[in-house]
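ESCALATION

Customer reports they have been waiting on this structure for their group meeting. Please prioritize. Original submission:
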Amino acid sequence: MVPEISVRELKESESADALLLVWDVFMEYEAPDYSEEGIAEFYKSIHDESYLSKLRMYGAFMENRLVGVIATRSEGAHIALFFVKGEYHGRGIGSQLFKTVLQMCPACSMTVNSSPYAVPIYHHLGFHDTDKEQAVNGLRFTPMEWRRT
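Update from on-call: job pushed to the front of the queue and completed.
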């Protein structure tokens, strides 16, 4: 029997665990595509209280274990963080996280600056590229958008 996945907004007391998951998944799957500058910049961003205070974070849980995180800003119109533990990839957890933030988003579109690793994942969710890959402070990303139809 496959364990049920539940998704809910995270409590402030759960943010440290969520950010640890984000960092671990980033280091395993995304850091190989980044320079040392980019890795340091990402680390700095997930430890910046001013930046984090603007995010709404949601977690995916299986058997009461946090297995995925998505965070939005700009009233839900921009995905700032989106990570699922590697051993849970391919189980629909990312799709459930995305569907949850779509329900919370009053806007008819959503944007993301996708890491190189995640571009195919966002394409699968219905995002399209709005520009070519860019790099800022060592962070590589492709601007993308999803539109409600």
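Sent to customer with the following note: Strands lie at 5-9, 56-62, 65-73, 78-84, 109-114, 128-129, 134-136, 139-147.
Escalation resolved.
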